[in-house]
Amino acid sequence: MDKGATFIKDEFARIELLKESASGSTEIVQGMDKQISVRKIIPYINLPYTQLATLQHPVLPLIYYVAEDAEHTYVIEEYISGQNLQELLEKKGSFSEKQVTNIALQLCHVLQVLHAHKILHRDIKPDNIILKNDGSIKLIDFGAARLAETDQHTHDTHILGTEGFAPPEQYGFAPTDVRSDLYAVGVTIKTLLGPHYQGRLLKIAGQCTQLDPSQRIACAADLETALRAKAYTVRKKISMVLLALCLLALGYGTWNARQARNNKANIGTEQKAHAPEGSFSLKNTKIVTKQDKTITQPKQETPQEQQTKATQQDNATQGQATVDLSTSGWNFAKVSLNDDRPQLAAMAKKAQQNGRTLVNFASNTDSPGVTVQNTSNVALHNPKVTFRFTNFGVMGTSSTINIGGNNKEITDFHTGSNKNLTQQLTVQLQGDIAPHDSWYVSFLGLDAFYLLGNAPAVQLVMSADNAPAKEITASIALQ
User: Fold this and answer.
1) What is the largest CA-CA distance in the chain?
2) Residue 381's CB: how many other CB atoms inside 10 A?
3) Where do the domains of the chain lie, and which CATH numbers do they carry?
């Protein structure tokens, strides 16, 4: 037996058997260093675990050791605390549209990385997705995975995936490719939403699950664009409906007021024609229309109201927008050096060596987010939010994401390397926010957060092509 395989089999003590079947076994084990891990023994070889061990992504488990013998693959990987989506589905019945969109977007992110490295998962389903307390997910179980450029018959005819989630080509009808994973994502989306859901995500899921692969969404980046575009379109349609109702109400009010003025003018003329000369006065006189309705004087606007209306009219004429800026969710907890999640524990120890403290989203709280609300009747052009941190730092990857039409969301970490810590980042919407619509920036996709000193805080500055800058400051709470 291979020395690596012997090491994995003999140097880790089983604590609990999680799963055992013809596809292999999965166990919770403990090494000589007392670290808790997961051991997988899979009755297939040439699986892409060696390639996975080189990847680091928030949605992937950390791979510690990989070995093969003539018939088996042996793996020691990160133990992840949380519940898989199938367990949660059985408890709650279904997930909300917002939750499913968030999960699907995270799957899109990790599939773009996997597919760029020619790795096909081939068994995406709720059982293989773990939901953590902070709302992030982990995609696990690569026992059916393969490299896209290998012989199609190496695994396709032996490892069939899960019935109902695996596409037809995975059963030998055609070679599998990245669209096979998208098929499984589509089925997962529909499964999580439940049988009674009839909303916007069904069309996207349907585009993923076409029997003919050529008719499916082509890649994970396109699926992400579709998910973001749908969300943006729905918000925009709702805003346009509300705007139309407001304009309709305003138009009706203007017509009503005009009619009242006309009636008043006509009645005044009739009264003048019939009143005795020198004896007529409107004071204390009730004026009645043909419908026998009393016309009252319109309410006089205060000087302040008149000034506000004039300013709004000037802004609309000049194309100037007004904006509200709000933020929430800046709640974190320190990561223990003995955290039961090995990857986080290792990152915490490395952070301590560099004079930092690794923190993570606090349990049962929303992840940090910022809302830019267009409160005017004109579109807000190219809004940008700059985050400046005090005694706090973040780590992540600069990116450009299409979110529908010609609109793009551009994240810039202001660092020479994507691996460097930064205390300033900018997120810009290249496009417009419709009147009375909003733009939400989530921090869920960032790689890591670090406490650098006491009293951490974040300053947020919003700017746009046609609106004055707006600034707020938020404290960062630690549990």
Assistant:
1) 122
2) 16
3) 3-78 (3.30.200.20), 83-232 (1.10.510.10), 323-478 (2.60.40.10)
pLDDT in tens, 67-78: 999 899 999 999
Q: What's the pTM value of the predicted model, to 2 decimals?
A: 0.53
Tell me which residue of 446, 449, 445 sits closest to 224, measured CA to CA: 445
Is residue 124 a contact partner of residue 165, using CB atoms and an 8 Å limit? yes
Predicted pLDDT of residue 282: 36
Beta strands in 268-346 (DSSP E): 323-328, 331-334
Q: Give, as one character, the DSSP assignment of residue 3.
A: H
Q: State the residue for tokens 């020619």.
A: 118
AA letter at 75? V
Cβ–Cβ contacts within 10 Å for residue 125, how many? 21
CB neighbourhood size of 77 (10 A): 25
Distance CA 149, CA 115 (A): 11
Amino acid at 81: S
CA–CA separation, 233 and 268 (whole Å): 52
Helix (H) or strand (E) holding 342: helix 342-353
